[in-house]
Specification:
Elements (H helix, E strand, L loop, with lengths): L1 H17 L16 E3 L10 E8 L26 E10 L5 E9 L6 H14 L8 E5 L23 H21 L2 E2 L1 E8 L4 E2 L1 E4 L4 E3 L8 E4 L6 E8 L5 E8 L17 H12 L4 E6 L5 E2 L16 H22 L9 E11 L5 H15 L9 H18 L5 E11 L2 E5 L3 E2 L1 H10 L4 E5 L8 E2 L2 H6 L13 H16 L4
Parallel strand pairs: 4-5, 13-14, 18-20, 19-21
Antiparallel strand pairs: 1-16, 2-3, 2-6, 3-4, 7-12, 8-15, 9-10, 9-11, 12-13, 16-17, 17-18
Length: 502
Amino acid sequence: MRKDMDKALSRRDFLYRTGYSAALAGSAFLAAGVLAVASVQTGGPAFRVGWATVSITPDKPVQLAGQFHERVSTEETLYPCLATALALEGVDGAGRRAQAILVACDLVNVGREHVEEIRRRVARELPDFDVAMLSVNTTHTHTGPTLTAGVYKEPDPGVMGPLEYAPFFCDRAAKAAVQAWKARQPAALSRALGHAAVGFNRIATYADGSSQMYGNSDRADFVGLEGGDDHGLELLFLWDRQDRLSGIVVNIACPSQVVEGQRYLSADFWGPVREEVQRLYGERVWVYPMVSAAGDQSPRDLVRRGRGEPDMRSEPGMREMARRIVNGVRHAYDTAQSGRDDNPVFRHYIERLELPARRVTDAEAAEARKELTRLTASGDVQPGSYDAAMLRRARDVVERYEAQGSSATYAMDLHVLRLGDTAVATNPFELYIEYGARIRARSRAAQTLLVQLANDRGRYLPTRRAVAGGAYGSRIADNLVGPEGGDVLVEKTVAAINGMWP
């Protein structure tokens, strides 16, 4: 691994020396193993930040993402779904300038094809920005529009489906990125750690070794939860040249899915978080949401089972989770006011990884074919139904089995940023929390922000224990990459982070 990192550093130094700045838009143009590092020579203050927020909420009914059955937003929007862009420009330890635009979206996920389209649109507007340095992440709200075609039936007349929503979304997200870049101003940053009990492990395990998502914990054979949780609230505060707070990056290990079954549009708990932060610190203070490794987490405590707190599938539960996050921010605010850095080391590193794919076994393929036979026997599977989703999943497994060959891989782009003493590292998965703990524990950075569901929809990435238990999230239909690939992701991410802290 040290040798691999030395090669990476050598490649990076070459890019710096030659002033490399990719003119091509999108990660599709990054060949496997090729590294890119932001390095452009510009004048002006050392560290500059820009913010922008646009609504990605359509003004008509839309198919919602996040459930196996179809839902359409038929009620009034509770909290608008937003795209929040954070533009960053600074210098590395050798005085070379680096750049990034991060875009957070209130959606369940985003496809690589959408990220590349956003980059193409941004490239037309920002010739001075290397669009390979743009990263898009999502909050995993289950009350946002779907971007994925073929999941539900064709939308009814007057209802927006993914083929109509996708260009609308890409246009709005690109506008947010462009506005943020053009709004860059001298800035400072500071970091703080808070705590908020928002995410909890959602997998119950039983005496026979089996596991079940949201399984009953009051059974006599319940032996515990499959994994841990992480109540750390990693916070990055951004300040303007007048020392006023301009925005907060909030990194928490929980998807925003309290009201996940509703039929309205909502950013879930990020909506009231934004409202309360702006009430406390000013209407022009942005919140940038990041979901840390949380593939096996949800905002529900399976042990207490709702005793002593609101229903965590309801709006009161959503507001309670927002209150916990804001309380964590308030508690950390005093710490964040000290240690501001207006000239932080800033580096942005990208590496194309080829992770070993999770292979479909003979037994898994046989089971999928059996399921196909069962579901198609009646010839009456209704589009948009639960059975239609199960049929699609079974077909996917069979197709993967027939196409996988002997060395199947999954390609992803790893973005790692250094912002002063803080590391930010992305991945496209619903990453089980164990992997996040392993990366954070081994990171040399004083603070490590992990960002899942970034730049592609990589599905769940479970642990070995999870695969053995067999709960939802760990089955072959749920995964493109398994534990072997998870180990590689950990090693590559740790190496990239620690390479910035030699």
